[in-house]
């Protein structure tokens, strides 16, 4: 059974990070290590991560791709799983991924928003799962950094994350797909913050459409504004 390093890029995430680390503590298949890559936060992000027992790395290059790449290069396990600092993997998350690793280079699972009134979390789960299905049928699996896992050796072999503002996770997934098999793991659910809807559903949808069609500007880094 492979061991997992969980990598979390973070920039001013003191509000959300404790719940994410708590979710990782509850994993039925515990990670070997948790790495929080602090992207020059101005709050207590790094202190909180250390207090929870995570390994903290400081990335002085602005951008989530640089933070994810630093985590990848410092990981010590055969497999890497990634999530975001405002996301909550279910307790069985790594267990589902562990069972799916044989013969694969990368894995990914569904997501839904938390912090919304019912039935919107369920609707986001259904709509995102449908989107992932369409992407798979089209031969373009969409791996998101908030919920993916991959062979560290394979990721390093393809050069890791592209140094772009956004879409770095999907680009890595595409490169890994050229190297070996990618599998969708429907049970490996991650709940993520609805804060990306703060500027409205229309703007969120537009930004997401632009990114999934290949644009590599903005999106998550807009949260820095």
UniProtKB/TrEMBL annotation:
UniProt enzyme class: transferase
GO molecular function, one term: glycosyltransferase activity
EC number of the protein: 2.4.-.-
The protein's name: Glycosyltransferase
Keyword terms: Cell membrane, Glycosyltransferase, Membrane, Transferase
Source species of the chain: Deinococcus antarcticus
InterPro entries, sorted: Glyco_trans_2-like (IPR001173), Nucleotide-diphossugar_trans (IPR029044)
Record's subcellular location: Cell membrane
Residue ranges of every copy of the Glycosyltransferase 2-like domain listed in the record: 5-152
Gene3D superfamilies in UniProt: Spore Coat Polysaccharide Biosynthesis Protein SpsA, Chain A (3.90.550.10)
Main location as per UniProt: membrane
